[in-house]
Amino acid sequence: MDTLSSSKICFFNGVSALNMRISLDEAAKRLKRGEVVAIPTETVYGLAADASNDQAIQLIFTTKQRPADHPLIVHIADISQVNDWAESFPAVAVKLAKAFWPGALTLVLPAKSHVSRIVRGNEPTIALRVPNHPIALALLKLSGLSVAAPSANLFTQLSPTTAEHVEAGLGEAVPVLDGGACAVGIESTIVSVNADGQWQLLRPGVISEADIMRVAGQAQQASSLTSSDNVDLQTPKVPGQHALHYSPRTPLFLFKDKASLMKECEALTHANLRCAALIIGDGNAPTCAVIRLSSEPIEAAEHLYSCLHQLDALNVDRLLVELPQNTPAWTAVLDRLSRAGFRGT
Ligand code: AMP
Ligand code: MG
């Protein structure tokens, strides 16, 4: 039994009998052999492979059916490894790394020329993060590798925050190192820092733009994201920011308030269509199956994908989702929801 694994599974040669849950040792061995392994991080489960092995990286793209121009985040064990991948590590980026690593912040930095074009999706930059999860960190140390690890799901689908979500999305042939449910629950905040030390927010996350500004000062490049962009379902402005992403299989529609959502629920019921709803906090609820998401944004982020997975499993015709308020505290959740579906009313 692997003491670091939270599930009660018996391993034979590091592999469980029931499904492909594997031990920490086995995960390290497989990564070193150039295989892919799903691993827990504090954000979402990642599909990991040796970041210095192009064939292993290629396996990530084929397993996820991810387009080649969507670069991967490389997970490193500590800040000292940045210089293995980045050509420059400007003072602002050092400050951010020291403030938020290990943690849910990815830094996009100018790449060293030897860094594989496959891992960086042909960009001149490399994305790096030190994850804040004891099992992920133990795996990086034990294997001695840096691992590329995008979310362990098929491209554009809902991100996994438990081992079960990974198995439901990718099938049981993908080995999973089980680390329990992810504590942050949504993907990392991404900040790019150029060689001159100018920074830009590329993807909102639980570490907010205000948190970044407190450490890095005012952004010298205009942010590519504004809160109003988040709900407009516009074309992507940075690589990998597809308009429809993070989406369940069930068509999902977004509503600005409970009243309009409830009206749609009634209309669908009238038309003999089945729906289920995700609503924020307390208050009136529609007559269909309902999951309530916390009205506190950090807690809502933690449970967002899990709730959407549960609603998707109901196999109804439509999912109806209440949008939270358009305030800075909700930016990251709004971003993920706006890419998960279409505007209802
Ligand atoms: P994920 O989809 O969660 O794996 O995050 C990867 C995202 O990080 C990409 O879709 C890009 O938006 C961003 N990213 C990763 N690597 C780079 C890079 N080298 N240059 C610019 N953005 C990157
Ligand atoms: Mg993803």
Brief rundown of the structure:
The protein is α/β, with parallel strands linked by helices and about 350 residues long.
Mean pLDDT figure:
92
* Distance from first to last alpha carbon: 51 Å
Number of E-state strands: 15
Percent strand equals: 15-25%
CATH topology of the largest domain: DHBP synthase
What is the name of the CATH superfamily of the largest domain? DHBP synthase
Question: In sequence order, what are the helices and strands, one letter per element?
Answer: EEHEEHEHHEEHEHEEHHEHEEHEHE
Q: Which sheet architecture does the biggest sheet show?
A: 8 strands, mixed
Helix content: 25-40%
Instruction: Return the structural class.
Output: alpha/beta
Major sheet strand order = 3-4-8-5-7-6-9-10
User: What gyration radius follows from the Cα positions, in whole Å?
Assistant: 20 Å
Main attributes?
345 residues; alpha/beta; binds magnesium ion; Rossmann fold; DHBP synthase; binds adenosine monophosphate; globular
Could you outline the blueprint of secondary structure elements for this entry?
Layout: E1 11-12, E2 15-16, H1 24-32, E3 37-39, E4 46-50, H2 54-64, E5 73-75, H3 82-85, H4 91-100, E6 105-110, E7 125-129, H5 134-143, E8 147-148, H6 163-170, E9 189-193, E10 199-203, H7 209-216, H8 227-230, E11 252-255, H9 258-270, E12 275-280, E13 289-293, H10 297-312, E14 318-322, H11 331-340, E15 342-343
Parallel strand pairs: 5-7, 6-9, 11-14, 11-15, 12-13, 12-14
Antiparallel strand pairs: 1-2, 3-4, 4-8, 5-8, 6-7, 9-10
Helix pairs in contact: 1-5
Bound molecules: adenosine monophosphate and magnesium ion.
